[in-house]
Amino acid sequence: MIYARGLIKRFGDFTAVDGIDLDVAPGEAFGFLGPNGAGKSSTMRMISCVSMPTAGELRILGMDPVREGPRIRARLGVCPQLDNLDPDLNVRENLTTYARYFGLSKSEARSRAQNLLEFVQLQEKATSTVEPLSGGMKRRLTIARSLINNPDLVLLDEPTTGLDPQARHLLWERLFRLKQQGTTLVLTTHYMDEAEQLCDRLVVMDGGRIAAEGSPRSLIETHSTPEVVELRFTDEVDYTGKLEGIGRVDPLPDRILLYTDDGDAAVNEVHRRGLTPSSVLVRRSSLEDVFLQLTGRTLVD
Questions:
Q1: Which domains are assigned to the chain?
Q2: How far is 186 from 78, CA to CA, in rounded Å?
Q3: Which residues pair with 15 in a beta bridge?
Q4: What angle do the packed helices 165-180 and 135-146 form, to 10 degrees?
Q5: Contact, 7 vs 46, CB < 8 A?
Q6: By C-alpha distance, which of 197, 184, 194, 101 is closest to 145?
Q7: Is the pLDDT at 107 greater than 70, yes or no?
Q8: 146 and 79 in contact (C-beta within 8 Å)?
């Protein structure tokens, strides 16, 4: 579905995407993770054929986006990061009007709109205007609109940003159903749990390059430890030196993280050394631990 080799995107002297290789298979849910400015959005814009590569090779659905952009876009579904629904149209009209851009007949547009409204559970809002809808409803409508042309490939840029947990989980369930039906999904997200839930495979980007690639589980196994111990201390004493040799130490402002193969054994060693944390939490390592290990904790604007 997507093939890229040595893909580069420059804006003047700034290199946003610096020679990445990608392969996305049919029916796969593929994710891009990375801090702000990592090159995720620039890559997605090239895949969606709205921004041409500066250098390298890119094929979407087996076609060259430079020469065959309109043919590719006709087979894509795009859910942008910000909802751009038409406030002058009702919910159903936002779908049927958009369908007409793909050359669908009025009857076919109405039929597909009805099916999609049922799919995203908005059939009761069909005649409502857009403005009163909740954020989750607007997001579901935007995703429904991206599916109106029965796309071969759906691109989702931060699909659940800003939504409450209930709306996020409903959207996850809808996207999982799409994946079950064989639709190829490519998404960017800042939510590590979302990536773990939805993605078969993902890349972590940093500085325009791919820092790591694999399934969520394989990335955790490769770049982190099986367990993490979170220690909190009430007094302001630097305990990090006293924890050396127990595991990889990652001091945070409010707690200390110990990356280790055996969390319980690490806790016992902490106590054996006479340390008395006010609270202890042993948890399994997560994709967020991998993300922070690969990209660092410095905030990027």
A1: 2-220 (3.40.50.300), 225-285 (3.30.70.980)
A2: 10
A3: 10
A4: 20
A5: yes
A6: 101
A7: yes
A8: yes
Q: Over the stretch 186-244, which tens digit does the pLDDT of each residue have? A: 999 888 888 988 999 999 999 999 999 999 999 999 999 999 999 999 877 778 788 98
Residues 6+ apart with CB under 8 A from 274: none
CA 263 to chain centre: 29
Closest CA to 10 of 35, 34, 42: 42
Compute the residue count for the chain: 301
Cβ neighbours for 89, distance < 8 A, ≥ 6 positions apart: 97, 129, 130
Q: Which among 294, 231, 227 is positioned nearest to 259, based on CA atoms?
A: 227
CB of 26 within 8 A of CB of 1? yes
- The helix/strand/coil state of 136 is helix
Q: If we measure between CA atoms, which residue out of 287, 227, 229, 284 comes closest to residue 261?
A: 227
Judge whether residue 5 has pLDDT over 50: yes
Specify the residue for token string 């106590």: 271
| Ranges assigned E (strand) in 63-141 | 76-79
Which residues fall within 8 angstroms of residue 50, CB to CB, at 6 or more apart? none
